[in-house]
Design brief:
Bound molecules: ligand PBG
Radius of gyration: 20 Å
CATH class: Alpha Beta
Distance between the termini: 40 Å
Order of helices and strands: HEEEHEHEHEHEHHEHEHHEH
CATH superfamily: Aldolase class I
Structural class: alpha/beta
Largest sheet: 10 strands, mixed
Shape: globular
Helix content: 25-40%
Number of helices: 11
Number of strands: 10
Length: 325
């Protein structure tokens, strides 16, 4: 029998597989999220995010050194303040937790690329991502003012890029305007454009103490059942000035990543969120899955079309890649 097409020929040995491999994860693709807390000398493992820590500002020197040594060049910073109030005042204070963390990292590591999370849920006493009306409903337009102030204060502290995760309408345009007005027109915005109202954020909310004290986030985050809507959200954010758009979570939304890739010409970030991390972490740690499942999962995110992957696996994957290469 003569078989003319033999795709397996190109899988027959490692060298040829390496030559034709379409998608490779490298440390250049990864952003590592870190959680900064108040106090001194604190490095406490986050029980819901094994291998990740709550760090006080004074501990960042050592931690960021380790992160850099792994080959990671970008960080996404989340702050967890002690003081919360209904206006999330700490979020835009020049002496807030994120602002201090950014200054500390930039003082020691100028080349570390720092992205800051712009949101209010860690800072409001009710845990919602914006300002509430007296009736307890999020006031979208009132919230924009605060988001603008947060972004400017982060830029002032030395952040390289801001990433609004709040999901208020029109915030990208508003933040862009405020940054430009204050002289930060060179600071890019990574928009959480397609952020779903997902159950996969559970471990993060425990880690960031940001679960809403009542209700849920369905009035501002997207319905997991919708795909076309994600394209509309992305379109609006691009029109408002987003430099990078994000899909979040990543693994249950690979189709969304691919559709954005096919429909828009803009860099895409995907957030491999806390629930995705915890599921895989548990499966690998209990021996149900081999460690290779991690790189397989991350590769699928890149193959779907993501340029940037934000992941709690960043450190260990970079160590792994170093051993393999
Ligand atoms: C805050 C925010 C959340 C995450 C990132 N920024 C939680 C939420 O929207 O409730 C989740 C990240 C993760 O699960 O790893 N708006």
């Amino acid at each position: 029998m003569k078989i003319t097409k033999r795709p397996r020929r190109l899988r027959a040995n490692k060298a040829i597989r390496d030559l034709i491999r379409e998608t490779k994860i490298t440390p250049d693709d990864l952003v590592y999220p870190i959680f900064v807390v108040e106090g001194k000398n604190r490095k406490e493992e986050i029980s819901t995010l094994k291998g990740n820590y709550h760090l006080s500002v004074d501990m960042l020197y050592e931690e960021v050194k380790e992160i850099r040594d792994c080959g990671i060049k970008s960080l996404l910073i989340f702050g967890i303040p002690d003081n919360k109030d209904c206006l999330g005042t700490e979020s835009y204070s020049d002496n807030g937790i994120v602002q201090r963390a950014v200054r500390e990292i930039k003082k020691n590591y100028k080349d570390m690329y720092i992205i800051t999370d712009i949101c209010m849920c860690q800072y409001t006493d009710h845990g919602h991502c914006g300002i509430l009306t007296e009736e307890g409903i999020i006031d979208n337009d009132e919230t924009l003012d605060y988001l603008g102030k947060i972004a400017v204060s982060h830029a002032k502290a030395g952040a390289d890029m801001v990433a609004p995760s709040d999901m208020m309408d029109a915030r990208i345009g508003y933040i862009r305007k405020q940054l430009d007005k204050e002289g930060y027109s060179n600071i890019p915005i990574m928009a959480y454009s397609a952020k779903y109202a997902s159950s996969f954020y559970g471990p993060f909310r425990a880690a960031a103490h940001s679960a809403p004290s009542f209700g849920d986030r369905k009035t501002y985050q997207m319905d997991p059942a919708n795909g076309d809507e994600a394209l509309r959200e992305v379109q609006l954010d691009i029109e408002e000035g987003a430099d990078i758009v994000m899909v979040k979570p990543a693994l249950p939304y690979l189709d969304i990543i691919r559709r954005i890739k096919d429909n828009h010409n803009i860099p895409i970030a995907a957030y491999n969120v806390s629930g995705e991390y915890s599921m895989l972490r548990t499966a690998v740690d209990t021996g149900l899955l081999s460690e290779d499942a991690i790189i397989e999962a991350l590769t699928s995110i890149k193959r779907a079309g993501a340029d940037i992957i934000i992941t709690y696996f960043a450190k260990e994957i970079c160590k792994q890649l170093r051993i393999d290469s």
